Amino acid sequence: MVATSTDKLEAGTVSSYDRLSEVKAFDDSKAGVQGLVENGVTKVPLMFNGGHSNLSEGLTKESNSKFSIPLIDLTGIHDNPVLRGDVVGRVRYACANWGFFQVINHGIPTHVLDETIKGTCRFHQQDAKWSDYLIDDDITSLHYTAIFVKVNTVDLLLLDIVIEYSKKIMELGYALFELLSEALDLDHYHLKEMTCAERLLLLCHYYPPCPEPELTMGSSKHSDGNCMTILLQDQIGGLQVLHENQWIDVPPLHGSLVVNVGDLLQLMTNDRFVSVQHRVLAKHQGPRISVASFFRTDTSKVFGPIKELVSEDRPPLYREISLKDYMAHRYPSGIGTSALSHFRLHAILNSR
């Protein structure tokens, strides 16, 4: 547990506040946010919002009910050309206008999804004693987080189901990259051959109930700095997408998965597809569980706008970069900041 007492962690109870010390004590405890909950915290600790600085951003949490995220049924995509053509059109629309969509009938059994959620929950609710297992190879890396506090171990409670889920999510990822390629009028293997699905990073998130959800966020607004993300969420809800300058709920739908375009795919498609900001609301209910699967390329591979998507009428908008280049400019600015603008050609020319 955090070294300081619970009352010192609660908002507004410390006249002289040392955030760095509180964050270090929290990290050193290895107990995560769940440890705070078990210790009876009744207010949002200042270290999570810099003294409720999120309020200055305007935490408008209401969703605009006029819009709803596209829902795409993947039934028949492997054996029915007519159904596949319809799905490709829906994927094209969703990626160009929303950057997000939900999929159903995706081929991953519901019991695998449910067990992945349950295993993540069990893992985070055990005592803060981490085992010695870690999966980290050329294909898959697994990390487990409690509000972005990383624990580089895999508990046996979760290991088996996550391995099974990872294999199935890779299969779905390959199928989705084929659909994305076709939606760009490219050969259906194009994005896979560009190694967009070469690496997979899984983040298993655990959001305990929040005592003061009106004062903070579960996860602040951000875009994903990868090629594509597939998200499994439980039934608590809280995910919102920024669409036409309005926050739109992504309602939980049992058995569905959420798919979104990452910053690198926006660059490669020369803005044909868009990577948009999203966030997670803090809630009284909980715990909220989600598992994010990030598809990414090798860090050293250099890529730019796909040449087939560039023409005299639609010139390249970005210079060629590597994932390493991109991340070097993304993380110093904070998790929510996209680095795409730094690599736009007009920005580079104007800076000279």
From TrEMBL:
This is Fe2OG dioxygenase domain-containing protein. SUPFAM superfamilies: Clavaminate synthase-like (SSF51197). Belongs to the iron/ascorbate-dependent oxidoreductase family. PANTHER family: 2-OXOGLUTARATE-DEPENDENT DIOXYGENASE, OXIDOREDUCTASE, 2OG-FE II OXYGENASE FAMILY PROTEIN. Coiled coil: none annotated. Transmembrane segments: none annotated. InterPro entries: DIOX_N (IPR026992), IPNS-like_FE2OG_OXY (IPR044861), IPNS-like_sf (IPR027443), Oxoglu/Fe-dep_dioxygenase_dom (IPR005123). Keywords: Iron, Metal-binding, Oxidoreductase. GO terms for molecular function: dioxygenase activity; metal ion binding. It comes from Clitoria ternatea. Residues 196-297 form the Fe2OG dioxygenase domain.
